[in-house]
Amino acid sequence: EYMLYSLRTDTLIPSALFECLSILLIVRGLRRGGILPFVGSGIAAGLAYLTRNDAVLLLPMLIVTVIVYALWSREKFYPRAAVLVPLVALVVVTPWLIRNLNAIGMLGSPETSSMFFFTDHSDHYAFGRHFTLETMLAAQTPAQIVGKRLFELAAAVKVMITSFDGFLPVAVAGGLLLLIQRRSDDARRRLLALAPTLILLLGILVAYPILIPYKSQAGSFKKAYLSILPLLLPLGAYGVERAVADRRLRLGVMALVVALLAFDAVDAVRLEQQLNDTYLASVETMAAQARALPDTNGDGDIILMAQDPYILRFAGLRSIMFPNEDRDTIIQI
Question: For the chain, what is the largest distance between any 2 Cα atoms, rounded to a whole number of angstroms?
Fold first, then answer.
């Protein structure tokens, strides 16, 4: 997954960097104290939000993490300076928020308040419509609303498993179960170190499949999950360490896992390239047909309307995203 996304113009890799860095610095600050870890975490959290706005979930994650440490930690921890995380993050994102206010009159996207009430994936492309609880209840029955969320929750669990690739789901799940089963002070410390990541994962599971399932369907859950997945990998390493006592065998298992992951990564890039080549060829054919159309207004310019405007740039055409509305509305726009 990471090899694929590293080759794309996409937000995932920087998002994973900033979110994981923010979480690691929170853990360090809670364990060792000091101001700098929390300041650094706030900077990383702010940059994560500027990369992907679902990084706002880092704030409730921090609150729940402090509560968990207060209830379960048997060692001294240092939560007082944790308030610096949201304050510093706010300083980082404020210029962007001011820009939004000046440009569109609101802090975030106009879609933010509507996306909770979508009833179809095509609602992402609506124009001039307002989605509320009333419109959602008018479009779907309660059984359909609940069923969609249960389906997306099951799909999210599948994504969590398949994103690990092959052996790793077993190792990570096994490592977590072994930690819970041990009930020792060492296991407690390890689980507390993992607490922010596990809490954020739970928040993502609530936010996307339950609250905004059509965003989950569109792939947002997968990207949010992949943004924190690196911090779950130590569970897999712990599971292998506990399950395979012999050091040489353990090294052999790890080498085999790395080799399989590398093979799958190369194969995934190969298949992706084939798909992209086929898609681009079809778009270039369409672009050639578009250039053959008569220039009815004589401006010498061609602008197409599409729901995937980015690929058209590779074919040398300008485009705008068309709304999912009736023909008269589209022509009026």
Answer: 78
